[in-house]
Amino acid sequence: MINTKPNRPFLLYFFLWVAVAFQACTTNETFTFEKQKIATETLLDCKKKECASIKINLVQVLDNAPACKTMNSEIEKAACSVLTIEEDQSYSNIDQAIKEFNQSYEDASNEFPEEIPPYEATVDCELSFQCKTMISVLMDSYIFTGGAHGYGAVSFINLDTKTGKPIKNKDLFKDYSVFMEYAERVFRSKYEILQNESINSTGFFFDNDTFALPENIGITNTEVILYYNAYEISSYAEGPIEIKINKQDAASYFAFDIL
To answer: Topology of 170-253 in CATH?
Structure first.
């Protein structure tokens, strides 16, 4: 199972270059990815006052082509959304998002100095899959802003290499409803739920007692991942629900060549 709280060591103040090559849709150009590491201390002076603990590990494409710039922007925007506390806020620049997250901690700490523990946020991105027409990026995040516990989540960002834009889940498949029927059979088989039984009979809470695909569908070199984060179809105590499907079995349903 994918870890919902990243525990990989974050090395600060430098860039780790990761050469990851793949062929673009229309050219033979090779794209190279980097892992960019950013922390609170790289942007703010935390020697004189306590800062929120923020550690960001972004995957970025090293290319100036418009599609590559768009891919980088979409990945950065997704990382910013993890740091966004207020519902009416949105950021597309990670530096700004870090500063605003830290400012939220400072404001809360100034108002309740004895009650507010340090805020914490980590975002760790990895290239999960690549082919000529798409890439899949896994984003493993954790955020703590007080309370009994923090919240860890996994997101998959599927991007069209031609446009750089996110691919909607429905557009991943030739027929979304047909794949959903197949996925339900896989889900019922894993959790031993008979076809004539309620999908929620073993304790899940799908809306309207109807199976639904998760918000996050990812691809690796060997598997298709259906990832339900905590609270999506189960309680926090139950944790995330992860369904792994062999790519050979699922490939015919996809609108992209994932093999």
So the answer is: Actin; Chain A, domain 4 (3.90.640)
What are 213's strand-pairing partners?
none
pLDDT digits (tens, 9 = 90+) for 147-202: 888 999 999 999 999 999 999 999 999 999 999 999 999 999 999 999 999 999 99
Residue for token digits 């506390």? Answer: 85
Q: Is residue 235 helix, strand or coil?
A: coil
Distances (CA, A) of 91 to 78, 88, 178, 184: 9, 10, 36, 36
CA pair distance 226, 1, nearest whole angstrom: 12
Q: Quick count: other Cβ atoms within 10 Å of Cβ 178?
A: 12
User: Residues 28-44: pLDDT tens digits?
Assistant: 345 788 999 999 888 88
Q: Decide if pLDDT at 225 tops 50.
A: yes
Question: Are the beta carbons of 150 and 142 closer than 8 angstroms?
Answer: yes
Pair 227, 138: CB distance under 8 Å: no
Interhelix angle 94-111/66-83, rounded to 10 degrees, is 10
Considering the four listed CATH numbers 3.30.565.40, 3.30.565.10, 1.10.10.10, 3.30.450.40, the one that applies to the domain covering 15-167 is 3.30.565.40
The residue behind tokens 């059979």 is: 185
| This prediction's pTM | 0.84
Q: Which two tokens stand for residue 69?
A: 């710039």
Cα dihedral value 93, 97, 98, 100, nearest 10: 140
Number of helices (H) and strands (E) in the chain: give both, helices first: 5, 9
Rounded Cα gap, residues 2 and 138, in angstroms = 10
